[in-house]
Amino acid sequence: MLDDELQAALDRRAAKGTLRQLTVYPTASTSVSSSSSSEQPLVDFSSNDYLSLATSSRVRADFAAIIASDSPLSAQLGSAGSRLLDGNSSVHEAVENDLTRHFASSTAGLLFNSGYEANVSLLSTLPQPKDVVIYDELVHASVHDGLRRSRVPAHLRIPFRHNSVDHLREILTRLVQDGTLTAGTSAAPGEQRNVWLAVESIYSMDGDACPLRALLDTLSQHVPQHRICAVVDEAHSTAVYGSRGRGLVNALGLQDDPRITARLMTFGKAWGASGAIVLCSKIARHYLINYARPLIFSTALGYPQLASILAAFRSVQDGSAEKRARATFGNARRLVDGLEGVIRSQSPAAKRTIALPPHLKPKQQAQLAVEADDDFVRWSMQQPSPIVPVLTSRARELAAYLRANGLLARPICYPTVPKGEDRVRICVHADNTKSDIDRLIDSVRSWVHADPSHVSTRTEVGRHTPPSPAHALAAKL
Ligand SMILES: Cc1ncc(COP(=O)(O)O)c(C=O)c1O
């Protein structure tokens, strides 16, 4: 029977410790009502809502006002079709235009239902069959999925070591030596390959920034400028970095660099909503409309989704999101400083130890410094990002211990991250208080120094065990 076969596969995963499960942990925002539950909400150190916009009362009020107004946004719920059929509307076009103008005055923009669909669309359609795609080994699954569907043959889809400018240079040198890339202009224009670079601005599991300018300059040393096509996924920098949340490319002053073919800004993380927009040339936009299957064959964003994007956009435009970003970066700095204290206090031979990744060492952070007129942009680039990975071989144990102490942070283990790089991924938010951050640091410290038997007891019978499954939530609704 099919179910037996499926169960056997799940059992194999469970035996390897890689089984995925849906969980509902009560945080202040996700508990529908804590009154009927003895569970205390957990403090959110897990979600991608870095600016706490998803729960902001101001944004929710703006959303309600948009929906209650006379605007066409309030006249319909679902979009009722793909953008190519009945799902397009003057509202979709107006939202798309306003967002495009905000992020990149000189390019075009195309809305997608999610960052996932946008990445799949970009990578599966734009690179041509003769092209080469070089991508950071840690790019998101959506880039891999897009590349798998692309017409670029497998041997011309080449990963480079995470953030390694040297490795990119090695790869390019080899491609020139073996004739895959023709140096100079000896090949006829039609035979010249475009060389694609796929990177993220801030990496989702490590929280480190891409050395984008150095990567682009390395490409320029081997490939004619008009053949360089970089795709920068700004999922974790949208609304957080750059002036008025325009992202890392903007913070680096590269927004008009012709080597950047597309930028992906997503609304599901710090923006607090869902959906995404691709910023690219008018021709690339038209090409995506013609060839991107996730766009062509899926119902367009609904009106409530557009309204939630617009509601957060008001806070992004008027600078209140930037104030929130200051709080988020301040929290990240406080956390990293505190964790460094924990690391100094631990014995290297102890059973339970933690480490921070190299990019969080103060000397490394200084390398991100940028020349920018904007005080916030300059300052933010010298802070740790909101994603702080705490490396430990006992990630599940540490996360369970934190949960038992009222703090929600997720263990991220192999195969989501490479073997030996298990971590608890801590995300800080604008609405985390200083005392929340200090409680987190104290809990990590007490886990590091705790008696092993004490830890296992706390984690097994912790106060904050996951609540019962969906029917409990349904009953509350
Ligand atoms: C780097 C990166 N790109 C793209 C995505 C997909 O974005 P979305 O959640 O909007 O589908 C994610 C989501 O986890 C991500 O981390």
TrEMBL record:
Residues 42-443 form the Aminotransferase class I/classII large domain. InterPro entries: Aminotrans_II_pyridoxalP_BS, Aminotransferase_I/II_large, AON_synthase_class-II, PyrdxlP-dep_Trfase, PyrdxlP-dep_Trfase_major, PyrdxlP-dep_Trfase_small. GO terms for molecular function: pyridoxal phosphate binding; transferase activity. Transmembrane segments: none annotated. It comes from the Eukaryota. Keywords: Pyridoxal phosphate, Transferase. Belongs to the class-II pyridoxal-phosphate-dependent aminotransferase family. BioF subfamily. This is 5-aminolevulinate synthase. It comes from Pseudozyma antarctica (strain T-34).
